[in-house]
Amino acid sequence: MLRQVRGRDRLGRGAAAQSAHTRALTPRTETADRVVDSVCPFCAVGCGQKVYVEDGRVTQIEGDPASPVSRGRLCPKGSASTQLVTSDRRVTTVRYRRPHGTEWEDLDLDTAMDMIADRVVATRRRHWEWEDDQGRRTRRTLGIASLGGATLDNEENYLMKKLYTAMGAIQIENQARI
Ligand code: SF4
């Protein structure tokens, strides 16, 4: 009240109501060593982002005011993308739940890659179709499909499309298109 009367904040909604603790706070972007321009990976809107880095670690991600797409804004998902990089709940190992299993287990990457390759080869062989029931040449497999997530970037999608098409798969989709 005293601060309201003495100062310029007569309505008590600014400096007069601020504690010393709040006054001492600084934005977490202020101490960043560098700021890297990026694009939100979550959806096809492609909002511009500013990635703040301190001591080699991402400390904050904000909307980029210079982006003609989003003009500094991010939706709640884009605003939370810092957690995509920094969350301690982020999964960093290969997780596997075997048939009829009830628990997830860790697998080393080489084992997982071998298992995937074995399954791809076997499935392609089992479901390969040279021609359809009217004798038209198809040379395809309907046994393999791909559904990508929006955090895949253009280059990854390009390579996946190439790989799956080369294998004869035709059901190749991405979450951002659905
Ligand atoms: S901030 Fe939201 S709307 Fe923008 S690209 Fe990311 S997910 Fe899409």
UniProtKB/TrEMBL annotation:
The keyword Iron-sulfur applies. Residues 33-89 form the 4Fe-4S Mo/W bis-MGD-type domain. Pfam families: Molybdop_Fe4S4 (PF04879). Residues 1-12 have a biased composition (Basic and acidic residues). Its cofactor is [4Fe-4S] cluster. Residues 1-30 are annotated as: Disordered. One of its GO terms (molecular function) is molybdenum ion binding. It comes from the Bacteria. It is found in: Cell envelope. GO terms for cellular component: cell envelope. Its main location: other. Keywords: 4Fe-4S, Iron, Iron-sulfur, Metal-binding, Oxidoreductase. One of its GO terms (biological process) is anaerobic respiration. Belongs to the prokaryotic molybdopterin-containing oxidoreductase family. This is Dehydrogenase. It comes from Phycicoccus endophyticus.
